[in-house]
Amino acid sequence: MFVKYSLDDWRFVLDMLRQGGPEHAEFAVAIEQLAKQRPSKVRSERRPDDRAATFLSEVEGSRGTVLRELYSNLKSKKLAPKLADLRDIYLRTGGKDKLPQRRDDAIYEVLLHMARLPEDVLASSVQELCERDRDLKNEYSRWFDIIYSKSE
What we know:
The protein has 8 helices and no strands. By secondary structure, it is mainly alpha-helical. The chain has 2 domains: 7-37, no CATH class; 51-133, no CATH class. It is elongated and about 100 Å long.
C-alpha cells in the first residue's frame, strides 16, 4: 500500500509515527525508503503501427501502388472516416471475419484482405470505394453540359 500511493498521501501518518516514539519512527523511515524504491510512473509511448506499411512495401506493381494509396486515404480518414465505414468496405469486398476494434488493426486486416483479391475484384472494389459518397448522376450531367454546351 505504501508503494502504490505517493509519499505525500502518507505524510500525515508518517508524522504521527515519528511523534509516537523511537520504535514508531523506525516504521516511518522504513516506509520512506520503500517509497523511494518504487518504480517511477513513466508511461510508455505508443509506437505507431507500421505493420501495414511494412506489408505494403512488399506488394509489387500496380496492386502495390493501389493498396498504398488506399492505405494513405484510410489512414488520413479521407476514405472511411468512421470504423463502421471501414467495416462496410471490408464486408463489401467479401470479408467474412470480425474486424478488430482499433482502427489501425482494422485497416491492416482490410488491406491484407484486399491484397488477396483477384485483380478484377480489387479494381471494381477500389472503383466503388472512390465513387462512394459522390453524386455521380449530377456530376456526370454537369460534365456533359460543360463538354457539349455551345460556346457563347
